[in-house]
Amino acid sequence: MTPEFKRVDESFHSYGFSYSHWLNSQGIYYAVDESFITLKKENISIRRWIQKKINTIEDVSIQSLLNKSLLNIKDTKENSWMKEAGFSYISILFLFHVICKYFMSEKKKDVVLSVITILLLIVYRFPMILVENLLFRVSRYFPLSRQKSASLITMFIMFCYPSEITSASFLIPSLYHYSFLFNEHKKGILFLLISILQSILFQTINPMRSFLYPLNMFLHGFFFLFSLVRFFTPVDFVSLIASALQSFNTLMNAFSLKGSIAGAGCILYILVVSMFHHKVRAAIVLLYIFQMTGLFHPCMEMTMINIGQGDAILIRAPLNSDNILIDTGKPSAYNALKTYLDAKSIYVINTLIITHNDNDHSGNKTNIQKDFAVKQCIETHQTTIQSSIFTLLDINEIQSEDENGSSIVNVVNFNGKQVCLMGVASDKTEEEIIHKYPTLSCDILKLGHHGSSTSSSDQFLDVVRPETALISSGAYRIYHHPSEETIQKLLKRHIPYFDTKTSGDITILCFGKIRVFITSRFEIGLI
């Protein structure tokens, strides 16, 4: 059987990490099913030898810990800033730095740390953060100013590792390397900039992680050291250190403030900070006030979140005073969904609406209820759903065993625009709706069933006459949504449409009565 190469379709998101985007940045555009792969030759490497030896350990939990520490292979459920940013390599050097400074001169210590860095580079195949560290260490022995050394090293790293220049493992160390540019308030400026980077990269700010960063490094260094002991001997201290790290991370997570500075309120933040004439403390205090109160996202908005095949629609009142989430997508998409909600500083879901029980619409209901305070959950037909300033009308009265036909269909007045959210309503459901509401019209129509040919009938489109159509869909080669037939219907009626598959998150921001349409691909317009 001939292997089929499938294109890696790039997925766009306003916040968080996109694996497909990362693959494309690495020049990887096609994938093949692993069942077609046959191992012909295996090269010998230190890392592979370590991996094989770890796999011979009978205790699965010890295997996981050693993979995590020695090979930087993290558990998918683990949420550690150190692992995400790749700082675990540097923690090894930090530990040896602390130990060596008590027994060696500065010159000997630099030699030892340089040798350890080179060994780590060989074992871990030259990760960027170790290469950068070695270059800065060696640059001290050349007759160049700090400015010139830092500039040359940065240019080299950007040339050799272009896909990593927006990563935390590049940006945060670079802030420290360039701290000589700050003549005054160096610590305050570093703290402010690192907090801003946390907000942008991780959709959260954690002041305690910045304050206790050396302790975190020290614990991770010990984790590596005792992992080496366990690797060569049956003596097990690694579980104890892992437990201490887990307790430390749990404690630190309690100080996390959700939110991303990348929002409309960022302009307001810059304007307010400028009034304080560059006072660093004022900028830090204001940053945390904006983060805690959701001022970075002050506008009323509606977003169709890109969670692949499935639906997840967020409707927000100004300053998080009311949050409505319609459907939750499938379990595999929960990270994208939660990342978006966290970026908006959302802690409370006032109303959760599940249009029907298919996995791609209700698959994360339990997760949402666990991670967010859900005040009311609507899973059955209700004529009117009231949620603070929003009133949603369910215009589908069909209740049968057919999940699609019985899907909740909501109509809501959003800042003066009539929005119709069709769930997965079929053409038969559409027929029933326009029979009961013959004068129904809308400005924005979210197409039923991801743009399938079984929805969005000619008759329905002619009655509601939308100005804009929205589609939530996944990879076309798998689901074949939206159908070409549906797209032709929209084109025939000159109805512009946007699809999460190609546009990413689709958001309507409201500035008074001005409504701005923006997508993850920076498609911008007025509605």
Characterization of the model:
With 527 residues, this protein is of the alpha/beta class. The chain is 45% helix and 15% strand. The protein contains 23 helices and 19 strands. An eight-stranded mixed sheet has the order 9-8-7-6-5-17-18-19, covered by helices on one side. A hairpin with a 2-residue loop joins strand 17 (506-511) and strand 18. It is globular and about 85 Å long. The protein starts with 5 loop residues before the first strand and ends with a strand. The mean pLDDT is 87.
What is the strand and helix layout of this fold?
Elements: E1 6-7, H1 19-25, E2 30-31, H2 46-55, H3 60-70, H4 81-85, H5 88-100, H6 106-123, H7 128-139, H8 146-160, H9 168-177, H10 186-202, E3 204-205, H11 207-211, H12 213-232, H13 238-253, E4 257-258, H14 265-274, H15 280-293, E5 300-304, E6 313-316, E7 323-326, H16 334-343, E8 348-353, H17 359-362, H18 365-371, E9 373-378, E10 384-387, E11 390-394, E12 410-414, E13 417-421, H19 427-436, E14 444-446, H20 458-464, E15 468-471, H21 476-479, H22 484-492, E16 497-499, H23 500-503, E17 506-511, E18 514-519, E19 524-526
Parallel strand pairs: 7-8, 8-9, 13-14, 14-15, 15-16
Antiparallel strand pairs: 1-2, 3-4, 5-6, 5-17, 6-7, 10-11, 11-12, 12-13, 17-18, 18-19
